[in-house]
Please model this.
Amino acid sequence: MVRAAIYTRISLDRDGRSEAPDRQERDARQHCQQRGWDVVEVFCDRDVSAFKANVHRPGFERLMAAVDEKTIDAIVVYRLDRLTRGGVVGITRVLERIQRSNVTLVSIGEAIDTSDAMAKASWPCSLLSPSRRASTSAGV
Model:
């Protein structure tokens, strides 16, 4: 069985009561259930930007440690911008790291699944779409 990790993040949640991470997790769990994957851990960063340089993201750092330790087979995110706001360069760095450990990346919001050869070949195009460029440059 595939050991899946879910990563959720919200940039602004000063009081810790936003439901956005819960919705991200719920959708990711549903995706895992549909695929027959076992969710072994959920990593979450609340009130943490993925856009600013040198920001400590404990959930993300624990996720990457799980990748390096090969304790997970797949990462499921709601959207790629939950994982990184570094555009093509940022996601490429993450993707290179997870590929070294043979971990699949799934973004349910963008229909990206690196276990699928065709989807894997076309995923960079979704990063360059006009809506993605606009939201990235606006810091959304």
Residues 128-140 have pLDDT under 50 and may be disordered. Helices lie at 20-35, 58-69, 80-83, 87-100, 117-127, 130-138.
